[in-house]
Specification:
Pfam families: ABM. The protein is an alpha+beta fold. The protein is 23% helix and 38% strand. It has an eight-stranded antiparallel beta barrel, surrounded by four helices.
Length: 199
């Protein structure tokens, strides 16, 4: 397991998040090593990058936080900003697994309404003990919502899914007009790059 922490999505900035296919675990690691090597000297405005590998060995997810939005490359993965988060104030557990669900939506109003409905549907007395936090990210262009959830382990998430804990959320995912689930994944943190604040 990596010693580096999961990224703190509550830190102000623009998040650029993308996924790409990798043919097996060795290729996943090679993709990360190539990208991190190319960022040995990070460009201005890039504060941190985290790389996650999907548990099925097929996908690499990259999450980059930019402090200067004008420095973000104009072409590439979508830009996101944090809309809302669900996390206990005294939460100290270390995440062991990232679960994502990505949606195409019909504009900014739908982004907000869909996210608020999903949050409203969460259990009042707390969810599965393996669930640590949930962050709802909205793309800057108003076309996407990314649900980013931290869990203690992949096994805990699987247990919650088998117990039906996600059924109400999945009804919203599939039954909300103007919202289309595009993909999701289960990931482990592999590597991080943190820019020296003094540089």
């Amino acid at each position: 397991m990596p010693s580096a922490p999961f990224p703190d999505l509550t830190v102000p900035g623009t998040l650029v998040i993308g996924t790409r296919y990798a043919d097996g675990p060795e290729r996943q690691q090679a993709v990360v090593e190539a990208e991190s090597g190319a960022l040995a000297t990070p460009p201005a405005g890039l504060a941190a990058v985290s790389w996650f590998l999907s548990t099925d060995g097929e996908t690499v997810l990259t999450l980059a936080r930019w402090t200067d939005d004008t420095a973000v490359p104009p072409a590439g993965p979508p830009r996101y900003r944090l809309y809302r988060s669900l996390v206990e104030e005294q939460e100290t557990r270390v995440p062991g697994c990232l679960i994502t669900a990505a949606f195409d939506v019909d504009g900014p109003e739908r982004q907000r309404a869909f996210t608020d409905a999903v949050i409203e549907a969460q259990p009042r007395e707390g969810g599965h003990p393996g669930a640590i936090s949930a962050h709802f990210l909205h793309s800057v262009d108003g076309s996407r919502v990314l649900l980013y959830t931290e869990w203690t382990s992949a096994e805990a998430h699987q247990e919650a899914a088998e117990a039906g804990d996600h059924d109400k959320g999945h009804e919203l995912f599939s039954g909300t007009p103007g919202v289309r689930l595009t993909h999701g994944g289960r990931f482990h943190l592999y590597s991080t790059l943190q820019r020296d604040p003094a540089s």
